[in-house]
Amino acid sequence: MTSPRGQGAPPDRGSGELANEVEGFLLLQAQREQAQREAEALCARLPWLTTGQAEDLTRHYTEQRLGLTRQALQAFADRAGRLRGEYEARYADLRRTLLRRHAVWACLLLASSIGVSTGAAWLTR
Known about the structure:
Elements: H1 15-44, H2 51-124
C-alpha cells in the first residue's frame, strides 16, 4: 500500500515536523558554508601557512564555529521552551479566572431572575 504523498514519503510524519527538519538542515548547511568562507579568508591573510596547515585550520575553525552555533541554537530553544511553559501556565490561569468570573455572574443573574420571579409571584397573589 502506498501513501497518498508518494512512494518515498515517510509514514506517520507530519509535514510540520518534516519542514522543521529540512529547515534545520538548511540552516546547518548555510552556517557550515559561512564558517568555511570565514576560515578561508583567515587563511588567505596568513600566507606563510602550508596547504596542509591551512586545511587543518579551516577544519578546526569550522568545527568550532558549528559547535558555537549549536550551543547558541540550543540556548534559544531552551529559552523558547521555558517561555512557552510560562505563557501556557499564565494562559491557563487567566482562563480559570475568566471561567470563575463568568460562573459567578451567571449565578448572580440566575439568582436575581429567580428573586424577581418569586417577588412577582408573591405580588400577584
